[in-house]
Design goal:
Blueprint (H helix, E strand, L loop, with lengths): L14 H25 L9 H13 L5 E4 L2 H5 L15 E7 L8 E6 L19 E3 L2 E3 L3 H20 L2 E3 L3 E6 L7 H8 L6 E4 L6 E6 L1 E10 L14 H6 L2 H14 L14 E8 L9 E10 L5 H18 L9 E9 L2 E2 L5 H14 L4 E4 L6 H8 L2 E4 L4 E2 L7 E3 H18 L2 E3 L2
Parallel strand pairs: 3-7, 3-8, 8-16, 9-15
Antiparallel strand pairs: 1-2, 2-7, 4-5, 5-18, 6-19, 9-14, 10-12, 10-13, 11-12, 17-18
Protein backbone atom coordinates (compact mmCIF):
# COMPACT_ATOMS: atom_id res chain seq x y z
CA UNK A 1 0.00 0.00 0.00
CA UNK A 2 1.27 3.44 -0.86
CA UNK A 3 1.77 6.07 1.81
CA UNK A 4 1.95 8.89 -0.72
CA UNK A 5 -1.19 11.00 -0.61
CA UNK A 6 -2.16 13.58 -3.21
CA UNK A 7 -3.87 16.20 -1.11
CA UNK A 8 -6.91 17.88 -2.67
CA UNK A 9 -7.07 21.63 -3.08
CA UNK A 10 -8.36 23.44 -0.02
CA UNK A 11 -12.15 23.66 -0.19
CA UNK A 12 -13.88 26.76 1.10
CA UNK A 13 -16.29 26.22 3.96
CA UNK A 14 -19.85 26.76 2.75
CA UNK A 15 -22.53 28.65 4.62
CA UNK A 16 -24.21 25.36 5.56
CA UNK A 17 -20.93 23.94 6.83
CA UNK A 18 -20.33 27.07 8.87
CA UNK A 19 -23.69 26.53 10.56
CA UNK A 20 -22.49 23.08 11.55
CA UNK A 21 -19.18 24.40 12.85
CA UNK A 22 -21.00 27.08 14.87
CA UNK A 23 -23.17 24.30 16.28
CA UNK A 24 -20.01 22.47 17.35
CA UNK A 25 -18.98 25.51 19.37
CA UNK A 26 -22.42 25.80 20.96
CA UNK A 27 -22.38 22.19 22.23
CA UNK A 28 -18.70 22.06 23.15
CA UNK A 29 -19.16 22.51 26.88
CA UNK A 30 -21.48 19.47 26.79
CA UNK A 31 -18.67 17.49 25.14
CA UNK A 32 -16.34 18.30 28.03
CA UNK A 33 -18.97 17.54 30.66
CA UNK A 34 -19.77 14.22 28.94
CA UNK A 35 -16.06 13.34 28.92
CA UNK A 36 -15.77 14.12 32.62
CA UNK A 37 -18.78 11.94 33.39
CA UNK A 38 -17.14 9.01 31.59
CA UNK A 39 -13.78 9.56 33.29
CA UNK A 40 -15.44 9.59 36.72
CA UNK A 41 -16.65 5.99 36.17
CA UNK A 42 -13.06 4.60 35.92
CA UNK A 43 -13.99 1.84 33.45
CA UNK A 44 -11.15 -0.63 33.94
CA UNK A 45 -11.42 -4.20 32.68
CA UNK A 46 -14.52 -5.99 33.95
CA UNK A 47 -15.77 -2.80 35.61
CA UNK A 48 -17.09 -1.06 32.51
CA UNK A 49 -20.76 -0.98 33.52
CA UNK A 50 -20.64 2.55 34.95
CA UNK A 51 -19.23 4.13 31.80
CA UNK A 52 -21.60 2.09 29.63
CA UNK A 53 -24.51 3.50 31.65
CA UNK A 54 -23.24 7.06 31.17
CA UNK A 55 -22.88 6.63 27.41
CA UNK A 56 -26.19 4.81 26.98
CA UNK A 57 -27.97 7.60 28.84
CA UNK A 58 -26.29 10.30 26.75
CA UNK A 59 -27.03 8.57 23.44
CA UNK A 60 -30.65 8.25 24.50
CA UNK A 61 -30.86 11.92 25.49
CA UNK A 62 -29.38 12.90 22.11
CA UNK A 63 -32.02 10.79 20.32
CA UNK A 64 -29.40 8.41 18.96
CA UNK A 65 -31.30 5.24 19.97
CA UNK A 66 -28.53 3.03 21.43
CA UNK A 67 -28.79 -0.73 21.29
CA UNK A 68 -26.80 -3.22 23.31
CA UNK A 69 -24.64 -5.53 21.20
CA UNK A 70 -23.59 -8.44 23.40
CA UNK A 71 -20.22 -10.15 23.13
CA UNK A 72 -21.73 -13.62 22.46
CA UNK A 73 -18.71 -15.70 23.43
CA UNK A 74 -19.70 -18.85 21.55
CA UNK A 75 -20.18 -16.94 18.30
CA UNK A 76 -16.89 -15.11 18.76
CA UNK A 77 -14.51 -17.81 19.98
CA UNK A 78 -14.62 -19.70 16.67
CA UNK A 79 -13.72 -16.58 14.68
CA UNK A 80 -10.07 -16.41 13.52
CA UNK A 81 -9.73 -12.83 14.82
CA UNK A 82 -10.94 -13.72 18.32
CA UNK A 83 -8.39 -13.11 21.08
CA UNK A 84 -8.70 -15.75 23.85
CA UNK A 85 -9.00 -14.23 27.32
CA UNK A 86 -9.12 -15.53 30.88
CA UNK A 87 -12.44 -13.96 31.85
CA UNK A 88 -16.08 -14.47 30.98
CA UNK A 89 -17.49 -11.75 28.73
CA UNK A 90 -20.81 -13.37 27.84
CA UNK A 91 -22.56 -10.82 30.07
CA UNK A 92 -20.79 -7.84 28.46
CA UNK A 93 -22.03 -5.64 25.67
CA UNK A 94 -21.11 -2.72 23.44
CA UNK A 95 -23.33 0.22 22.55
CA UNK A 96 -24.29 0.82 18.92
CA UNK A 97 -26.42 3.57 17.39
CA UNK A 98 -27.44 3.23 13.76
CA UNK A 99 -28.76 5.99 11.55
CA UNK A 100 -30.46 5.00 8.30
CA UNK A 101 -29.31 1.38 8.01
CA UNK A 102 -29.77 0.19 4.45
CA UNK A 103 -30.23 3.68 3.03
CA UNK A 104 -28.48 4.82 -0.13
CA UNK A 105 -25.10 6.52 0.10
CA UNK A 106 -21.66 5.78 1.47
CA UNK A 107 -21.76 4.34 4.98
CA UNK A 108 -19.56 5.41 7.87
CA UNK A 109 -18.60 3.85 11.20
CA UNK A 110 -17.43 5.98 14.11
CA UNK A 111 -15.77 3.69 16.63
CA UNK A 112 -14.30 4.39 20.05
CA UNK A 113 -13.52 2.39 23.17
CA UNK A 114 -14.82 3.07 26.66
CA UNK A 115 -12.47 0.86 28.69
CA UNK A 116 -9.37 2.27 30.38
CA UNK A 117 -6.22 0.79 31.88
CA UNK A 118 -5.51 0.77 35.60
CA UNK A 119 -4.26 4.01 37.16
CA UNK A 120 -2.58 2.26 40.10
CA UNK A 121 -0.72 3.33 42.10
CA UNK A 122 -3.13 6.25 42.31
CA UNK A 123 -1.04 8.02 44.96
CA UNK A 124 1.43 8.95 42.21
CA UNK A 125 -1.22 11.17 40.63
CA UNK A 126 -1.62 14.86 41.46
CA UNK A 127 -5.29 14.18 42.16
CA UNK A 128 -7.39 10.98 42.21
CA UNK A 129 -7.38 9.64 38.63
CA UNK A 130 -11.14 9.02 38.53
CA UNK A 131 -11.94 12.60 39.59
CA UNK A 132 -11.46 14.66 36.41
CA UNK A 133 -10.07 18.18 36.62
CA UNK A 134 -9.16 20.99 34.24
CA UNK A 135 -5.95 23.00 34.44
CA UNK A 136 -4.36 25.45 32.01
CA UNK A 137 -6.16 24.15 28.93
CA UNK A 138 -5.90 20.44 29.73
CA UNK A 139 -8.49 17.98 31.03
CA UNK A 140 -6.99 15.40 33.41
CA UNK A 141 -8.07 11.93 34.51
CA UNK A 142 -7.68 8.28 33.55
CA UNK A 143 -9.32 7.86 30.16
CA UNK A 144 -9.55 11.59 29.43
CA UNK A 145 -7.15 11.14 26.52
CA UNK A 146 -7.34 7.42 25.84
CA UNK A 147 -9.99 7.78 24.67
CA UNK A 148 -13.17 9.09 26.23
CA UNK A 149 -12.76 12.65 24.95
CA UNK A 150 -12.57 11.19 21.45
CA UNK A 151 -15.73 9.17 22.05
CA UNK A 152 -17.50 12.33 23.23
CA UNK A 153 -16.26 14.27 20.19
CA UNK A 154 -17.42 11.66 17.65
CA UNK A 155 -20.88 11.35 19.23
CA UNK A 156 -21.33 15.10 19.48
CA UNK A 157 -20.15 15.59 15.89
CA UNK A 158 -23.31 13.72 14.85
CA UNK A 159 -25.39 15.70 17.34
CA UNK A 160 -23.93 19.04 16.20
CA UNK A 161 -25.01 18.38 12.61
CA UNK A 162 -28.56 17.68 13.72
CA UNK A 163 -28.49 20.56 16.21
CA UNK A 164 -27.59 22.85 13.29
CA UNK A 165 -30.82 21.91 11.52
CA UNK A 166 -29.70 19.09 9.25
CA UNK A 167 -30.79 15.47 8.94
CA UNK A 168 -28.20 12.83 8.08
CA UNK A 169 -29.82 10.60 5.45
CA UNK A 170 -26.93 8.25 4.58
CA UNK A 171 -25.96 5.24 6.75
CA UNK A 172 -23.93 6.05 9.85
CA UNK A 173 -23.08 3.82 12.80
CA UNK A 174 -21.68 4.83 16.19
CA UNK A 175 -19.88 2.10 18.13
CA UNK A 176 -18.84 2.56 21.78
CA UNK A 177 -17.00 -0.63 22.65
CA UNK A 178 -15.28 -2.44 25.51
CA UNK A 179 -12.12 -4.57 25.74
CA UNK A 180 -10.07 -2.57 23.24
CA UNK A 181 -7.20 -2.31 25.70
CA UNK A 182 -6.74 -6.06 25.98
CA UNK A 183 -8.24 -8.01 23.07
CA UNK A 184 -10.28 -6.07 20.52
CA UNK A 185 -13.12 -8.53 21.03
CA UNK A 186 -15.65 -5.74 21.58
CA UNK A 187 -15.29 -4.28 18.11
CA UNK A 188 -15.06 -7.78 16.64
CA UNK A 189 -18.43 -8.60 18.23
CA UNK A 190 -19.97 -5.54 16.55
CA UNK A 191 -18.60 -6.48 13.13
CA UNK A 192 -19.54 -10.12 13.58
CA UNK A 193 -23.14 -9.04 14.11
CA UNK A 194 -23.28 -6.94 10.96
CA UNK A 195 -22.47 -3.44 12.19
CA UNK A 196 -19.94 -2.49 9.54
CA UNK A 197 -19.57 0.23 6.91
CA UNK A 198 -17.61 1.56 3.96
CA UNK A 199 -15.15 3.59 6.05
CA UNK A 200 -14.19 3.57 9.74
CA UNK A 201 -12.94 6.53 11.74
CA UNK A 202 -11.53 6.15 15.27
CA UNK A 203 -10.67 9.21 17.42
CA UNK A 204 -7.65 7.72 19.19
CA UNK A 205 -5.52 10.40 20.89
CA UNK A 206 -2.74 10.65 18.32
CA UNK A 207 -3.61 14.22 17.39
CA UNK A 208 -4.94 15.91 14.26
CA UNK A 209 -2.97 13.73 11.87
CA UNK A 210 -3.67 10.79 9.59
CA UNK A 211 -2.84 7.42 11.12
CA UNK A 212 -0.97 5.44 8.47
CA UNK A 213 -0.31 2.03 10.01
CA UNK A 214 0.17 -0.05 13.10
CA UNK A 215 2.28 -2.97 14.30
CA UNK A 216 1.07 -6.36 15.36
CA UNK A 217 0.77 -7.07 19.08
CA UNK A 218 0.99 -10.38 20.95
CA UNK A 219 0.33 -10.97 24.65
CA UNK A 220 1.66 -14.01 26.49
CA UNK A 221 2.22 -15.46 29.96
CA UNK A 222 5.19 -17.42 31.25
CA UNK A 223 4.91 -19.49 34.42
CA UNK A 224 7.71 -21.32 36.21
CA UNK A 225 7.77 -23.50 39.30
CA UNK A 226 10.55 -23.73 41.83
CA UNK A 227 11.01 -25.70 45.03
CA UNK A 228 9.79 -24.23 48.31
CA UNK A 229 12.05 -24.26 51.36
CA UNK A 230 12.64 -22.41 54.61
CA UNK A 231 15.12 -19.57 54.30
CA UNK A 232 17.34 -21.13 56.98
CA UNK A 233 18.80 -23.01 54.01
CA UNK A 234 17.86 -21.37 50.71
CA UNK A 235 20.07 -23.85 48.85
CA UNK A 236 17.52 -26.53 49.70
CA UNK A 237 14.98 -24.78 47.47
CA UNK A 238 14.75 -23.37 43.97
CA UNK A 239 13.70 -19.71 43.75
CA UNK A 240 10.98 -19.49 41.09
CA UNK A 241 11.17 -15.69 40.87
CA UNK A 242 14.90 -15.74 40.15
CA UNK A 243 14.38 -18.60 37.74
CA UNK A 244 11.71 -16.68 35.83
CA UNK A 245 13.99 -13.67 35.50
CA UNK A 246 16.48 -15.81 33.59
CA UNK A 247 14.02 -15.90 30.68
CA UNK A 248 13.89 -12.13 30.21
CA UNK A 249 17.27 -11.79 28.42
CA UNK A 250 16.11 -14.42 25.93
CA UNK A 251 12.94 -12.43 25.26
CA UNK A 252 15.02 -9.27 24.85
CA UNK A 253 17.06 -11.17 22.31
CA UNK A 254 13.90 -11.89 20.33
CA UNK A 255 13.00 -8.20 20.48
CA UNK A 256 16.44 -7.31 19.10
CA UNK A 257 16.12 -9.91 16.34
CA UNK A 258 12.74 -8.52 15.23
CA UNK A 259 14.09 -4.98 15.08
CA UNK A 260 17.31 -5.98 13.34
CA UNK A 261 15.92 -8.29 10.68
CA UNK A 262 12.24 -7.40 10.19
CA UNK A 263 12.14 -3.61 9.87
CA UNK A 264 10.72 -3.35 6.39
CA UNK A 265 9.27 -0.14 4.92
CA UNK A 266 7.79 2.01 6.28
CA UNK A 267 9.07 0.85 9.69
CA UNK A 268 12.66 0.83 8.46
CA UNK A 269 12.86 4.53 9.35
CA UNK A 270 12.49 3.70 13.07
CA UNK A 271 15.29 2.35 15.25
CA UNK A 272 13.03 0.11 17.35
CA UNK A 273 9.39 -0.11 16.30
CA UNK A 274 8.78 -3.60 17.76
CA UNK A 275 8.88 -3.38 21.52
CA UNK A 276 8.86 -6.00 24.26
CA UNK A 277 7.26 -5.01 27.53
CA UNK A 278 7.34 -7.11 30.68
CA UNK A 279 4.10 -5.70 31.99
CA UNK A 280 3.38 -7.74 35.09
CA UNK A 281 5.23 -10.12 37.44
CA UNK A 282 4.04 -12.02 40.48
CA UNK A 283 5.23 -14.93 42.54
CA UNK A 284 5.87 -16.41 45.93
CA UNK A 285 3.68 -16.22 49.01
CA UNK A 286 5.96 -15.50 52.00
CA UNK A 287 9.07 -13.37 52.51
CA UNK A 288 10.77 -16.13 54.52
CA UNK A 289 9.97 -18.96 52.11
CA UNK A 290 11.79 -19.72 48.89
CA UNK A 291 9.09 -19.00 46.27
CA UNK A 292 7.69 -22.05 44.53
CA UNK A 293 5.95 -20.26 41.67
CA UNK A 294 6.28 -17.11 39.56
CA UNK A 295 4.57 -15.71 36.49
CA UNK A 296 5.11 -12.83 34.11
CA UNK A 297 2.82 -11.29 31.52
CA UNK A 298 4.36 -9.61 28.51
CA UNK A 299 3.56 -7.88 25.25
CA UNK A 300 5.68 -7.92 22.11
CA UNK A 301 5.19 -5.97 18.89
CA UNK A 302 5.80 -7.45 15.45
CA UNK A 303 5.79 -6.15 11.87
CA UNK A 304 2.89 -5.92 9.42
CA UNK A 305 2.98 -8.94 7.15
CA UNK A 306 4.00 -11.32 9.93
CA UNK A 307 1.12 -13.55 10.98
CA UNK A 308 -0.01 -14.17 14.53
CA UNK A 309 1.02 -17.80 14.16
CA UNK A 310 4.50 -16.76 13.07
CA UNK A 311 5.11 -14.52 16.08
CA UNK A 312 3.69 -17.12 18.46
CA UNK A 313 6.11 -19.63 16.99
CA UNK A 314 8.99 -17.20 17.43
CA UNK A 315 8.15 -16.69 21.10
CA UNK A 316 7.80 -20.45 21.56
CA UNK A 317 11.13 -21.09 19.83
CA UNK A 318 12.78 -18.45 22.00
CA UNK A 319 11.64 -20.19 25.18
CA UNK A 320 12.62 -23.60 23.83
CA UNK A 321 16.12 -22.31 23.15
CA UNK A 322 16.34 -20.98 26.71
CA UNK A 323 15.26 -24.36 28.07
CA UNK A 324 17.83 -26.18 25.96
CA UNK A 325 20.75 -23.92 26.90
CA UNK A 326 20.06 -22.96 30.51
CA UNK A 327 20.47 -25.82 33.03
CA UNK A 328 18.19 -23.97 35.47
CA UNK A 329 15.26 -25.33 33.45
CA UNK A 330 16.44 -28.91 33.32
CA UNK A 331 14.18 -29.99 36.18
CA UNK A 332 10.96 -28.35 35.03
CA UNK A 333 9.93 -26.56 31.86
CA UNK A 334 8.35 -23.08 31.88
CA UNK A 335 4.71 -23.00 30.81
CA UNK A 336 3.97 -20.60 27.92
CA UNK A 337 0.41 -19.45 27.28
CA UNK A 338 -0.98 -16.95 24.80
CA UNK A 339 -3.90 -14.80 25.89
CA UNK A 340 -5.44 -11.50 24.88
CA UNK A 341 -3.98 -9.70 21.89
CA UNK A 342 -2.82 -11.78 18.97
CA UNK A 343 -3.39 -8.92 16.58
CA UNK A 344 -1.62 -8.57 13.26
CA UNK A 345 -0.35 -5.23 11.98
CA UNK A 346 -1.37 -3.48 8.78
CA UNK A 347 -0.86 -0.33 6.74
CA UNK A 348 -3.63 2.12 5.91
CA UNK A 349 -4.71 2.55 2.28
CA UNK A 350 -3.76 6.21 1.92
CA UNK A 351 -5.38 6.47 -1.53
CA UNK A 352 -8.86 5.68 -0.23
CA UNK A 353 -11.60 8.28 -0.76
CA UNK A 354 -12.18 8.44 2.99
CA UNK A 355 -8.57 9.47 3.63
CA UNK A 356 -8.75 12.15 0.96
CA UNK A 357 -12.03 13.50 2.34
CA UNK A 358 -10.71 13.55 5.91
CA UNK A 359 -7.56 15.31 4.71
CA UNK A 360 -9.70 17.86 2.89
CA UNK A 361 -11.78 18.54 6.01
CA UNK A 362 -8.59 19.05 8.02
CA UNK A 363 -7.24 21.44 5.39
CA UNK A 364 -10.47 23.44 5.23
CA UNK A 365 -10.26 24.04 8.97
CA UNK A 366 -6.52 24.55 9.40
CA UNK A 367 -5.32 25.65 5.91
CA UNK A 368 -2.51 23.11 6.23
CA UNK A 369 -1.98 19.53 5.12
CA UNK A 370 -2.38 16.96 7.89
CA UNK A 371 0.71 15.22 9.19
CA UNK A 372 1.01 11.44 9.10
CA UNK A 373 1.48 9.17 12.10
CA UNK A 374 2.96 5.66 11.88
CA UNK A 375 2.18 3.80 15.09
CA UNK A 376 4.16 1.30 17.14
CA UNK A 377 1.02 0.16 18.97
CA UNK A 378 -2.31 -1.29 17.83
CA UNK A 379 -5.93 -0.09 17.73
CA UNK A 380 -9.33 -1.54 16.87
CA UNK A 381 -8.76 -0.34 13.32
CA UNK A 382 -7.29 -3.78 12.61
CA UNK A 383 -10.69 -5.43 13.12
CA UNK A 384 -12.18 -3.44 10.24
CA UNK A 385 -9.15 -4.13 8.04
CA UNK A 386 -8.95 -7.87 8.61
CA UNK A 387 -12.64 -8.65 9.13
CA UNK A 388 -14.06 -7.02 5.99
CA UNK A 389 -11.15 -5.13 4.39
CA UNK A 390 -12.89 -1.94 5.41
CA UNK A 391 -10.68 1.12 5.01
CA UNK A 392 -10.25 3.54 7.88
CA UNK A 393 -7.90 5.57 10.00
CA UNK A 394 -7.48 7.27 13.36
CA UNK A 395 -7.68 11.03 13.90
CA UNK A 396 -8.26 12.49 17.33
CA UNK A 397 -7.30 14.81 20.16
CA UNK A 398 -3.83 15.50 21.56
CA UNK A 399 -3.16 13.59 24.79
CA UNK A 400 -0.24 13.24 27.15
CA UNK A 401 0.72 10.49 29.61
CA UNK A 402 -1.71 7.93 28.24
CA UNK A 403 -1.39 4.73 30.35
CA UNK A 404 0.74 6.88 32.66
CA UNK A 405 0.47 9.26 35.62
CA UNK A 406 -1.65 12.43 35.24
CA UNK A 407 -3.09 11.44 31.87
CA UNK A 408 -4.56 14.50 30.18
CA UNK A 409 -6.01 15.76 26.91
CA UNK A 410 -5.70 19.19 25.35
CA UNK A 411 -9.13 20.80 25.50
CA UNK A 412 -8.88 22.78 22.26
CA UNK A 413 -7.74 19.65 20.44
CA UNK A 414 -11.06 18.05 21.41
CA UNK A 415 -12.82 20.99 19.73
CA UNK A 416 -10.62 20.46 16.65
CA UNK A 417 -11.59 16.78 16.55
CA UNK A 418 -15.29 17.61 16.99
CA UNK A 419 -15.27 20.09 14.12
CA UNK A 420 -13.20 17.91 11.78
CA UNK A 421 -15.52 14.94 12.35
CA UNK A 422 -18.63 17.06 11.84
CA UNK A 423 -17.25 18.53 8.62
CA UNK A 424 -16.10 15.13 7.40
CA UNK A 425 -19.49 13.52 8.13
CA UNK A 426 -21.29 16.33 6.28
CA UNK A 427 -19.11 15.82 3.19
CA UNK A 428 -18.80 12.04 3.25
CA UNK A 429 -22.49 11.39 3.77
CA UNK A 430 -25.70 13.00 2.69
CA UNK A 431 -27.57 15.74 4.55
CA UNK A 432 -30.95 17.39 4.21
CA UNK A 433 -31.69 20.79 5.69
CA UNK A 434 -34.74 21.05 7.93
CA UNK A 435 -34.92 24.83 7.60
Amino acid sequence: MSHNTTFPAVRDITAAEQRILNSCDSVFEEVLEFTENMVSQYGVLNHEQGVLDVVEDRLTRLDLAPQRVHMKHHALCSHPLYAPVDWDHDHKYNLVSQLNPGAAGKSLVLNGHLDVVSAEPSDMWSRPPHQPWRHEGWLYGRGAGDMQSGVAAMIYAVHAIRHAGFTITSPLTIQAVVEEECSGNGTLACLNQGFGGDFALIPEPFGAQIYTGQVGVLWFKLTVKGKPAHVLDTSAGINAIEKLQRLIPWLKGLEAELNEHHRQAPYDTMAQPFNLNIGKMEGGNWASSVPSHAQLEARIGFPPGMSANEIMQKVSDCIEEAIAKDPAFADQRPILRFHGFRSEGHLVDMKHDGIRELSAAHQSLTHAEPAHYLSTCTTDLRAFHFYSRTAGTCYGPVAQNIHGVDECVNIESIRQTLKTYALFISRWGQLESRS
